[in-house]
Structure formats: structure tokens, C-alpha cells
Amino acid sequence: MKLVKHISIIFFILITSMASAQVKFEAKVSKKSLGVNERLRIDFEMNKDGDNFTPPDFSSFNVSGPNQSVSNSWINGVRTYKKTYTYFLTPKSRGNFTISQATIVIDGTVYKTVPVKVTVTAAVDKPKDPNDPNFIASENIHLVAEISKTNPYLNEAISVVYKLYVSPNIAVDNWNEVDSPRYNDFWSQNINTQGQKVQNGTYKGEDYRYLVLRKTVLYPQKTGELNIEPLTLNLSMRVPTNRRDIFGGAIMTRVSKVVSAGNQTISVKSLPEQGKPADFTGAVGSFSFDVSSSKQVLDASESLQIKVGVKGNGNLKLFKLPKLSLPSSLEVYEPEHTENVKTNSAGMQGDISDSYTVVPQYKGKYPIPSISFSYFDLKSKSYKRLNSDEIIIDVQNGPLNNVSTSETNTTSNKQAVVLSNDQFAFIKTKTNFTSIRPSYFFKTNLFWSLLLLPFLLIPIAIVFRNKKASRDADVYGNRIRKADKLAKKYLSNAKKSLGQKEAFYIALEKALHNYLKAKLHIETNELSKDKIEELLLKKQVDAEVIKDFKGILESCELARYTPIDIVTMQDDFDKAAKTISLIDKQAR
């Protein structure tokens, strides 16, 4: 009996020592999926004390901590030890993140935790806890998105105004954007709100102060239910507590709070099919239309400008102007597109125009026929058509059109054909062919040329070989030439991709970037628009050419969010080729 008792004690001691010898070091998270406005708790637990604890990299989060706790317990004579390092993490943005390994040294051995994957989604509704200081903040601060119209037409302007409402008993120290809306399926432009002052207002019937943080104008590019993503802010503020100071004033506590404007949905109506003109290109708003000429009386070889312009309020940057139709006897150059458009809360306002340079070659009067422009009027909710006046171009001095003159004379001097028996007398019926003796090749000019040609090619080959060796040794120059070839290659790919929007604009953008690498001697990571403008100005390139180049890059970006037809693609391709040519000519 005693033997059994001793064996049981020894077995118990062995089991206890084995359990105590097994070291555990783990990372535990409160959740693996959270909203960008939520906090994540992560605990690094160990069952034996250690040294040199090293936390993982928390660069994707705002970190609070660590908090350290130690617990000892005895259960049925068995000691349980636990030491914990606790961190509270607030995500900086949406995405999938991996919390890497933490390390610690226990009894001379390095232990590591297993990496933890965490998914951060858009802002979510958080449960309310009236005993939490965060709840006090959430009840007294609100971020609101005010939308001017929730059921607009396609390409009708709407505005989104983001206001931060703060109760008078809350003090906001600072804020920063955690997540910005991306406005998929919209053409968008932010309006400058710098210098905005805090104003007094009401929120749900209560007095609040508010500040306008952002204004954005949107033009929907699709019909149906469209989602407007929320703006999310991280706020640092002070909120009152139930404690009082010696003077009876409420003691404030500092709170970090993430607030979101919430998702918004609008319903976009399609434009009516009834009465839609065949030449309608998507213009929506209220416009006037005009076609004018800089000259109506001139001499041949002089130039004039014919301007086709639209002015008013609406989606001025999102449709094409009608093309000018001119007589074939007038030499016409590609039009220069000009935009003078400002955007405010009501949308785009201003004018756009295409200016054609025309050079008449011959004397005469040339009519410029009337052209029309159609748009959808939002006030009357119907389509309207505007027509230009006919213009007569009078070319007073210059040569006559020889083609038309000769054709006129030929027509007026036609005579009847008189048939006779001798009408085929000019055809010879007898021949007087003579034999030709073969010539000899020896000592001819061709013989001496072929004999001397190899000797003439020797110095040319030597010069060519020296230039090739020098070219091969020029590593930097070869890199520039390679980039130039790539630009031509991508421009060729862009031409082949006409009609395929995404492939075309990707190829066009690559061509422009590689051209800049070749021309400006810069790498891809330096290709910001400000850097491009600065370097091109140093190369003495005209500001207008630089503006056109930046405009093409913006067109490549805008094409991802707007419908583009093949005519627009062809225009962008021609403009890119023309702009590259101008930069080549002007750059010093």
C-alpha cells in the first residue's frame, strides 16, 4: 500500500514538472475583422517569465500601450503563472494586414508568436455603452454628409458637403482623415474649403457648432443605385467627466474617437429616349451655342480662325463639341480645344471651344454651312437644339481654282466627234526592226564601279564600327534610347488598341511616361505632374505645350471613370503624338 502511494507521488511530481517545463508564448486578438472606426485588442501571453520582449511592427495602426499584467494561481496544488502584454490598435486605413511575430527570451531560449492576419473594413455601427467616455463623445459629435439631390439624371451635377457637428461641451483638439471616399462611377472634383470658420447651427433640434470639412461636386456616369462611400475621421478631443475640480468645474478627459459619415445611396435616372437627337453627345445643363469667324474677307494664303463654342452651366468637360464642316477647297488644321471652366457647389460653369485654323488657297466665296448642337435641358426636362448661322468667307485676291476652270472649259468646248475612213491611219502596219548586238560587260562603267566599290566601303565600315563601339560604351545613352523605343512601341500599341478603352489608355499612359524618361533623364518614381512641369520649363518648352501634355495624362486618369468613345480616343492619340513632336522641337 505504501509502495503504491510512493509511486503515485513520484508520478504526480513528474507530470507537474513536465507541465511546468512546457513554455507557451501566444498572440491573441479580440477580433480578426473590424471596421476602420473600431479598436483591436491584442494580448501577448506567456506561462513563464521572460526578458527582452520585442513587439511586432504596428506601422499600419495607431498604438496605445503596452499594459502589463501578471497573475499567479494555485489550483489543487498546481501553480499557474501568466504574464500578458496588452496593446490597443486603431487601424489607419482599410485593407488586409498581418501582425508579425513578437519575440521574448525565456531561460536563454528565444520564443516567437505566430503571425496574425487582420481584415479592416469600412466603418461599421458600434454598440453603445453609456458608461464609456467614448459613448459620451459619440453622443456629442457627428460627421454628416449632406447630398444636394438623391435622384439626379445621368450627368447632372450634385454636391456632397461633409459637416462636423460638435456639442458646445466638447473640445476638439485635432483630426485627420482615416479613409476618404473614392467616388466610383462618378466624375468628381473637390472644392477648396480652406479658411472655413466654425458656425452655429442645430443638429436634431439641439444647439451645435459645425465646420464644413469638405465639398465635392459629383457627376454620375452610370444609372441605377450608386453608392457614395463614407468619409472617416480620427478625432482627438476632450470630454467632460462626473468629477469636479476645487472650483466646481467639470474635469475633462482626453478621448480618441473615429467617426464616419456613413454610406449614402443615390438613384440615378437615365435620360429619356423620347425626343433624343441622333447627334446627342451627352450634354446636360443649360447652354448657348455659337460659331464665329475671325475674318470674313481676306486674301488667299491668309489664315483665319473659326471658333465653335458652347457656354453655360452643365457637364462642360464631359461631352464633345460638334465638328465643323468646310468645303474641300479650304485647308483646315486640327482644332485647338480650350476650356475656361470653374466648378462650384452648383457644378461646372464657363465655356469650351474648338478653334479651327483655315487657310484658303484660291479666290472665291466659300459658305460655312450651319451646324447644330443638342443638349438635355434640366429645367424643362426635354432636349433642345441650337443652330449656328451660315458664314460666307470672301477670298478676294488670289489664284483661281485651276481644276474647276479647266473642267469648266472642257465642258463648254465639247465638239461632236466626226468619223472618217482615215481615222485609224496613224497605226503602222509594217515594221523596220533591226537586230541589236550584245554589249560586253568588261571595262564598262558598271564593271569599274563594282570593282572600286569594296575599297570605297572600307573607310565607311571603319567609321561605322567606331561609332558602334562608342555607342555600346555609352550605357546611359543606351538606356535613354531604349526608353525612346519603348515610347514608340507603346504609342503603337495604343493605336492598335483604339476602341478598347482600358487597353488604349494604359498603353498611351505608358508611352508618355517612357517618353519623359528618355527626354528628361528621370526615373519613373519621379514622374509627378509638378516635377514634369518644372523640368519641361527648364528645357524651355512652352507653357501651353506643357499644359497639353498634362491634360493628356489627366485624360488617361479620367478615362477610368467616364465613358469614352472611339472618336475621343483618336483625338487623344493625335494630341499625344502632336505634343511629343512639339516638345522634341522646343526642348533645349
Automatic annotation (TrEMBL):
* Membrane keyword on record: yes
User: Span of the secretion signal?
Assistant: 1-21
Q: Which InterPro entries match?
A: BatD
Q: Which Pfam families match?
A: BatD
The record lists the membrane-crossing segments as 446-464
- Top-level taxon: Bacteria
Q: Which UniProt keywords apply?
A: Membrane, Signal, Transmembrane, Transmembrane helix
Coiled-coil stretches noted in the UniProt entry, renumbered to this chain? none
User: What is this protein's name?
Assistant: Oxygen tolerance protein BatD
